[in-house]
């Protein structure tokens, strides 16, 4: 055990917060999002449930804060690779490898994300918070790809790239042979080559500005729910 | 009540099977995959649990059979639209609208799929069955796009298209404004324009033949599981 240091009030607060987040990450990884309890997270962090609630509104916010950390971490990696965007071929290979690595290594996290999404889908307030969160990586990728978007809306391109990545990750988790790691790079290459060689959006397709937490409120009623 | 008809043994068997599937679809929609019980499904169908088990190995197989029905139904729609592939622009608009419609209307089903996938991820035997199932839509889309793939592997292109679609659906469910329905068509256009204007795969990227139920068995150990 290290000798306890005298911490300022701010330092002590930050330490408690970090301990709670680290404990939440552990408990989520072990028990899933649904299975984790705030009691267990607080006790794992060496704090009371009261202390937990003085830092976070609950399990949802602990998860969303961890989400921010993961998103920032992933994006650092993407930005580092994209900074060499000039040498096209190499960049795609490097980016594809990085994405395949995320697909293969962050399996616990992606399972948690899936559970959380499932849980948020029936909770409109939480879904709004998740939607706001998803704008950060979307606008960051849009900024990266903007110089390569020709006449197309960078936010739309970013949304497609993220969609492509997430959709390939899901398929690769179910069936690794179906999604060779090179496919991440190949598919990105097709998409970006297509941007250069296709005309701009039709008039009806006005680019959506990045408006955090701004979902369409009046969702159309579904005709079928099968 | 209709007057009971005298059914052949085969007809009676088929009717029981269909009733069980219809009941399963209802109970899954109401209670989710995790919440549904075989008792409830059997009783809703007007049969015993024993009868259920004489037709299906359990809840998993009921879900997988419903999955097949949904996949076949979706694919019929895609094939109908793709049969007019010649008139490029119109086809993409029609295909995009169809995909956006699936995204918006099949919300109960896509939530069930998400739950089932989450459940299957920790059950290798079930994951293999799901992986085998996913090859059917993949090879069907590959067949459709093959004439438009230039030097690229149609199965890889199909995998990317399905990934793109699924990734956009997920984002649209969280944030409809972030994924305008036109984006499905736009992104498909970029991808297919890119196929025509990019070179074939690198030598290392040998096309994967469609091998149902043939996942790589020796999965690499993950370095991190964060």
Automatic annotation (TrEMBL), chains A, B:
Residues 37-56 bind DNA. It comes from the Bacteria. It comes from Streptosporangium canum. Residues 14-74 form the HTH tetR-type domain. PROSITE patterns: HTH_TETR_2. Pfam families: TetR_N (PF00440). SUPFAM superfamilies: Homeodomain-like (SSF46689), Tetracyclin repressor-like, C-terminal domain (SSF48498). This is Transcriptional regulator, TetR family. InterPro entries: Homeodomain-like_sf (IPR009057), HTH-type_TetR-like_transc_reg (IPR050109), HTH_TetR (IPR001647), Tet_transcr_reg_TetR-rel_C_sf (IPR036271). Signal peptide: none annotated.
């Amino acid at each position: 055990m290290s000798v306890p240091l005298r911490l300022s009030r701010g330092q002590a607060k930050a330490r408690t917060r970090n301990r709670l987040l680290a404990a939440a990450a552990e408990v989520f990884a072990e028990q899933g999002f649904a299975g984790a309890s705030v009691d267990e997270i607080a006790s794992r962090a060496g704090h009371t449930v009261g202390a937990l609630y003085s830092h976070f509104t609950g399990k949802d916010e602990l998860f969303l804060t961890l989400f921010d950390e993961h998103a920032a971490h992933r994006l650092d990696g993407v930005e580092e690779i994209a900074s060499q965007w000039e040498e096209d071929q190499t960049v795609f290979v490097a980016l594809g490898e990085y994405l395949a690595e995320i697909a293969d290594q962050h399996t616990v996290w992606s399972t948690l994300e899936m559970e959380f999404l499932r849980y948020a889908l029936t909770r409109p307030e939480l879904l709004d918070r998740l939607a706001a969160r998803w704008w950060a990586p979307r606008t960051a990728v849009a900024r990266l790809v903007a110089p390569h978007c020709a006449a197309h809306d960078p936010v739309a391109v970013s949304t497609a790239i993220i969609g492509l990545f997430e959709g390939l990750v899901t398929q690769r988790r179910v069936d690794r042979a179906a999604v060779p790691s090179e496919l991440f790079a190949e598919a990105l290459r097709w998409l970006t080559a297509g941007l250069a060689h296709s005309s701009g959006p039709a008039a009806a397709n006005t680019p959506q500005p990045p408006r955090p937490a701004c979902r369409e409120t009046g969702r159309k009623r579904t005709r079928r729910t099968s």
